[in-house]
Amino acid sequence: PVLRYAPTYRLESKKPFNREKAENVIKKVLEENLEDFVYGPKHATNLCKHISEEIKIRIKYKYVCFVTIGEKFLQDNCMMNFLWDSNNDGFLTHLHETPEYFVLVTFIYTYYD
Fold first, then answer.
1. 8, 9, 82, 110: most buried, per Cβ within 10 A?
2. Could you give the domains of the chain?
3. For residues 53-77, average pLDDT
């Protein structure tokens, strides 16, 4: 007789994403890196990279992390669209503002097996 096995793949994560923990990590990374920050285009570019790397190291999940630093001067709008499983996937945003600049972190997390 031919042996038949049931599928062994998981449709859900064993450890669901912890939004509260991720939000705390993002806030802490921003606090640590923006304490003495003075806006400058070249420095902002490097800081965006550094902040997103710090968040990546501290949060364990499949994700994309966007960090935008901009001067408060004639801003434009931006938009993102997503197609995902709302039970396992989602996003977080955190905005840090001063009179001179803003920092927007958008953190998108997805379950992938």
1. 110
2. 19-109 (3.30.1140.40)
3. 79
CA nearest to 65, candidates 102, 34, 91 = 91
Closest CA to 72 of 52, 95, 46, 55: 95
Which residues, including other chains, have CB under 8 Å from residue 22's CB and lie 6 or more apart?
59, 61, 92, 107, 109
Please tell me the distance from the alpha carbon of residue 65 to that of residue 23, in angstroms, as a whole number: 12
Q: Model confidence over 12-59: pLDDT tens digits? A: 667 777 889 889 998 999 999 988 888 888 888 888 889 888 888 887
